[in-house]
Every structure is written in C-alpha cells, then in structure tokens.
Known about the structure:
The protein is mainly beta and 229 residues long. The chain contains two helices and twelve strands; from the N terminus they run βααβββββββββββ. The protein has two domains: 1-59, no CATH class; 61-227, no CATH class. Strands 2, 4, 7, 8, 9, 10 and 12 form a seven-stranded antiparallel β-sheet that branches.
Amino acid sequence: MAFISPVNQMTTADALRLASLAAYGNNKALQDLLVAMISGNVAVLPGSSTAGGGVTVRSGGNIYSNAGAAIQGNAAVTTNTVLATALIPANSFDGIQSRVLSFFAAGKFAATGNNKVIRIYFGSDFQTVGQPVVSTASAIIADSGVVTTNTGGWNANAQVTKYGVPGSNTQIGVNMGIITGVSHVGTTAPVSLTGVENGPLYITVTGASSTTGAANDVVLQNIEVTWNN
C-alpha cells in the first residue's frame, strides 16, 4: 500500500500556541495563524487531521510514521523496489518561510553478501509500494551506492526545502546521510529539484538486490515523514 499524507489541518491547540507566539511579536506565527483562519483550515477537535480545501497549513510534526518487523522488502528483481512512498499534497510548498520536509527511513539487511542499494527519490511520479520505482519525473536525492553489508541495519535521511516564490517549482534536496551497518557511506551535493508544486509530489525510499535479484535483501522497518515548520 502507499503511505498517503493528509492535508494537515491546524489543531486547536496549535492555533492557540501560535496566537501566544504572535502576541510576543512572532510574525511567522501570526502569518500561519491568519492563513489558517482565512482558509477555514483550523480543526474543530484537537489532534484532528483531515483533508481541507484552499491553502495548506502545517503546524509542524509528522505527516506519516510507521514501524514494524518487516514493513516492505525489495522484490526479487535487480531494479529498485519502492519500500515506502509519501504523497505530498498539491500546493504544500507554498513559499512561506522556506517550507522544509524531512524524511527518515530505517531497516535491516538480509544475511547475504549480495550487492544492495538504498535510494531516496523526490518528484511527481506516482509510486506503487512493492513495484519498481518510476523515475520519469523524479530525482535521486540520496544514494547509498552498492554495499555488501551482511545482516545489520541501515538508515537514510533526507530533506527537501522550498526556495523561490510560490509556484516557481524550485526546491533543494539534501542527502542528510545514509548509514549501512557500521559504515557511513557519505553524502552528496544538494540536488536542484523541479517538483511541480500545484500537483501532488512524492518522496520515496527504495531498496534493491542490484546484482542477484534476491527478495528482501533490503527490508524497511521504520519510516517518518515530517514538516519542520
């Protein structure tokens, strides 16, 4: 299944918190609160998160999180299999104060010396969990390269930050680091992204048994997708 993020309504508790911050001169808090009120996007009940129209308002926190012994493993192919994907609703990167999306995933390796690869993609391609990744309109923002880690764990971190005016389809993808077993496999230069902001976007983690094609060489066990502001 795909992990689909809702359009987050601002909770009542967060609206009150922003009101308090605004009273002390925090202009960003005042701006977000006013946008929420004008668009009718303040939830009635604390903690609610449902689809809403108009401007998307984020109060910060998780878009999606999940954990399990084995959420999804790579398929028995040599191509990159989608382990998890999160849908970012249209107009989420609205240009207000450089919206930041953070992504974390972690899991385990099979007890093999096979070549294995972990990647994070971002773009407008619809992705299906358990199937090969679609990369027509998606870019790699983090890549482990080929590793041969036998058992042990892995984790991968990335961020996507909006820059430029709203609707300019300009973002930066940053590889925050991938660790496989006891090795940090390094980072890469930030990637200039051109996600179409008035349509849905997807951030996706993949795994591959890149030479052998053995199923479950890379298994996902934990994922968290978060708005930083």
